[in-house]
Amino acid sequence: MKIYRPDYKLYAYLTLLSIALRLVPFTSGNGVIDSVINDIATGAVASTIVAFLIDKADCNRKNKEKRTERFHTYLFLNQLIMYLLQTYADVCKACFKNVDYSKQEKTWIEWFIICKQKINDGGNEHKEDRYSHLVLHWRLNSKQVVAELDNLINNKHILKLENVMDQNRCFALMQLREILTTDVNLTSSESDCDFSMFEAINKDIEKWISTKSDMPSFNIMKFAPYELWENEIKLLAVLNA
Hints:
Elements: H1 8-23, H2 31-85, H3 87-95, H4 108-121, H5 124-154, H6 156-161, H7 167-181, H8 196-210, H9 228-239
């Protein structure tokens, strides 16, 4: 995205020119004219410095406004991504009542490992139902993320004009969409409870997050299951950092 900056070269050139006129020995043979030229050069230096400070303050204001605009443009997407990654924690709390997960905080990858282990080690009586529950909730949450990605991508031309999206951000959103739409291959079959597709998707998402410096650090954020308000506060703290 475009960052507003003063034209440093222009201001440096004007300042050096004004200083040169003031310092280089110059005489017209008329003391009054020489004095006027020196005064003009001195005033030009001061005026250039003042103009630079005003321009810099204006650029800082514009950049702050654009950061705020970008914050609100992608806030809903970031919230939906967080809800998606929180799926594993929510399933652990909903499906395994023998352990109090309500106050435990872990990264989304740690929650997946626990969720997978508990489903596989939980016996065959409820294994298929719990796996199907996980697939259902993942699909519901991922569809919401994809819908918001489509909304942003479809409006990319307007967002580019408003300087809240560039080609790199648009490509990153398309990458995430491609990753999440592969979950159509997730099976809720009662016969295998295969986690290989989850593992593949998780690996792609983890890599996608780690390579996007302008995205929240979801890979190291710790979530508690069904603690939407507390997790929202954590997300906002990261986004405002």
